[in-house]
Amino acid sequence: MKKLLLSLLTLLVSSPMMAQGWPSEYKGVMLQAFYWDSYNKASKWTNLQAQVDELSQYFQLVWIPQSGNCNGKSMGYDPYYLFPGTDHYTSSFGSEKQLRSMISTFKEKKIETIADVVINHRKSGSGWFGFPTETYNNITYTMTSTDVCSDDDNGKAQTEATRLKVALGAADTGEGWDGMRDLDHKSENVQNIVKAYLHALLEDLGYAGFRYDMVKGYSGTFTGLYNKDSSPKYSVGEYWDGNASNVKSWINSTKVDNVIQSAAFDFPFRYTVRDACNNGNWAKLANSSLASDGNYRRYGVTFIENHDTEFRSANAPQDPIKKDTLAGNAHMLAMPGTPCVFLKHWIDCKEFIKPMIEARRLAGISNTSSITRLKNSTACYAFSTDDRLIAVLGNVSDYAPTDNGWVKILDGYHYAYYIRNTVGNTAWISHASGKYQGEQKVILAAITTQNARIVYTTDGSTPTASSPSVASGEKITIPIGTTTLKAAMLVNGNITGDIITREYEVEYVEPFSIPSFCTVADGEVCAFFEAPITWTNTIKCWAWNANNSNANYTGGTWPGVECTKLGTNNGKDVWKWTFKATDYKGSGNATQPTLIIFSSNGNPQTDNLTFKNGGYYNQDGLRDIVTGIGNVVNKQQNRLQRYYTIDGRYAGNDKSTLPHGIFITNGKKFVR
After folding, report:
1. Residues in Cβ contact with 57 at an 8 Å cutoff, skipping those fewer than 6 apart
2. Is 491 in the same domain as 608?
3. Closest by alpha carbon to 218, among 267, 177, 161, 257?
4. What is the pLDDT of residues 309-326, one digit of tens each?
5. Facing residues of 179 across strands?
6. Are residues 280 and 301 in the same domain?
7. CB 203 within 8 A of CB 191
């Protein structure tokens, strides 16, 4: 009898209905399937459902916007109607019927859907306290003024309540927010309505879990209360705070009977990645986060961008990651926690994110995996996860495992992955199927402890022992056009394991070149800018010294000084800024700026760009350097090759004595 009771208890504890905030040892990856204003197309329910076959290969969870009707065009963060099965459940993303179809189709393909739950506040209709009355399952639900926090809107609610001679609820248990009515979660009526709403999301619409919006707005005990009642399989709160200790405290505040009831988005992790990428300081990745803490990584949902931090427009720049998006995703997808990929990143970079997810899956990384730091410097950060996957970020040439049990499987700009040869017995192709621009160098690797080569074909035929082959870890070129690549391991003369297939469409890209009219005179301090076609105003330059806030090289009044238009390159205007001593404002000697911005007479503008003398920039940053050398002539009379540094200094004529770096000879660049 004791054994039977123990077995029943074990079954109950392991059941999803008893999930403790977030499943332990969870290996899934989540997609945030929206960005700001994505209801126009990208996140319509029908559009997301149409992508289910592709999405199901990489994601186990999809987080979608709040799906109720907001009484107007909306992202869903101003909820009005709550309950489905009425005439009021069509949102900006589609109808209730389309929503149900999408969730059902996702479920058939093993994707679980996360609902965006917005219960900190609610939109009122007619009047300050005009909430709708809804009937669901024959029960009528109505909120009144007594369900609104007494200190809502910094006293405005109290003023209105006094005017109308109605009562308010208790004081807010979290941070206040002006704009809508903050709900009093101490109210029994609010609690009953929220509980019924959450049950409807899970049991009627078919959601698997919740993403709680703005949980700083009310005590975490209520998230615990609601989850204990509704038993979602997944729960994650948006506790927007970069301090890891504060986020952990909120997670602990959700405990019921000393059991954590919700995970949290790992904002500290997001900020470490932002700082590392934007500043080129990869040591920042070692900063504290939920994912880096073995006691909390189970409850950390990692991300590097979302709808609140993304760049929306010049008028709403937010706080985005400005560069190295792929390296940021590579870091996240190699770390513990449950990674959440941002839809814009997926749309723009899916061919590169796909193999990262496949590598995570192959290595068996979960939300409770362990990490070991291998290198931590400004230029390079490297770590291993479960001693099965190594991620290198930054200058990837600064670290490589010396143990021959590691196989390099991914190599991109500022990121690389290595995998233990014991994790599988399979061929590997570094690039996922898809569309690419320009010829691609693809790694073919054998993940095996055996001595293997990779045989491959590029015409869609099945590889055989006599097909072209490369050593494991070597690269082959995927040319312009359509290519079907098939690869397999060759061990002891026999094909071993599965045959891997990829379909590529590679587009021709016009080679980048600096126009001949871009020249640099001896001693000149200057920069060039290739402006986007949409920047129609005179380009202005703003340049300064980051180490001396008083040192400005462009007049000291934003947006700086006018540049000179030189001509066009590929249909885009090219401008030049040259430093003039009369433009220098500030203390100290004028030498060279360290940072530079180009703008279309102030707006729009580039990010803060690192200044390189003679730098040729576009909207994305530095493209190359104009050296001012011209064609370097190899004088035949002395038969010596002459080498110059990138800034034009003579470096010698013996290649073997040159230090590592970029040099110019005979008018061409080479890397030593």
Report:
1. 354
2. no
3. 177
4. 998 876 788 999 988 999
5. none
6. yes
7. no
